[in-house]
Design brief:
The protein is of the alpha/beta class. 32% of the residues lie in helices and 26% in strands. It contains 6 helices and 6 strands. A 6-stranded mixed sheet has the order 2-3-1-4-5-6, sandwiched between helices. Strand 5, helix 5 and strand 6 form a beta-alpha-beta unit. The relative contact order is 0.21. It binds guanosine-5'-diphosphate (GDP) and magnesium ion (MG). Guanosine-5'-diphosphate binds next to helix 1.
Length: 176
């Protein structure tokens, strides 16, 4: 992790998961408390920052976002390199995004450091009636890989703060 003058530490975290699962929405909800029902496709790679307090220390978190359709192809190793953590996101309303998790998980494990913290995030929990992925199945997937699982809604804010904070706290425990 890098040091900076205004904050005590800088953490780079990345968003991974299929296109449309809500990565950019989670990012804008967490960093700006904004949400839009319109999908704005992410062009290339973007990042936003937010300062978070952990243990009385100020951590500047750089959250990197990319368009999911670039998966396995043009996402450069650069995106993963130096990432200390990732939110591995799928869409609770779309089983295929859950089935694709393994490929994302392997990408992270292959390209980010072995120490990279991961939290599994099932997004869009506000639409319970349209759910295609059961809590038990997602939880089992996470347990098998020894990573936490959380269900979020960027739309109604459920657990968004908690998801990012839990990842940041995990990184803090690993590195500081
Ligand atoms: P990305 O491609 O992974 O960055 O996904 P986006 O953030 O662009 O979101 C894709 C679509 O899902 C957009 O229409 C969002 O408004 C919608 N969306 C994102 N998060 C949620 C959520 O928590 N609940 C619901 N109902 N829709 C969401
Ligand atoms: Mg996006």
């Amino acid at each position: 992790m890098a040091q900076s003058s205004s904050s005590d530490y800088i953490f780079k975290i990345i968003l991974t998961g299929d296109s449309g699962v809500g990565k950019s929405s989670l990012l804008s909800r967490f960093t700006r408390n904004e949400f839009s029902l319109e999908s704005r496709s992410t062009i290339g790679v973007e990042f936003s920052t937010k300062e978070v307090q952990v243990d009385g220390k100020t951590i500047k978190v750089e959250i990197w976002d990319t368009a999911g359709q670039e998966r396995f192809m043009t996402i450069t190793k650069h995106y993963y390199r130096t990432a200390l953590g990732t939110l591995l996101v799928f869409d609770l309303l779309k089983a295929s995004t859950f089935q694709n998790l393994n490929q994302w998980y392997n990408e992270v494990r292959a390209n980010a450091g072995i120490e990279c913290s991961i939290i599994l995030v099932g997004n869009k929990v506000d639409q319970r009636h349209k759910r295609e992925v059961l809590y038990e199945n997602a939880k089992r997937y996470a347990d098998e890989r020894n990573i936490p699982y959380i269900e979020t809604s960027a739309l109604d804010t459920t657990n968004v703060e908690q998801a990012f904070r839990s990842l940041i706290a995990d990184i803090y425990r690993n590195w500081i």
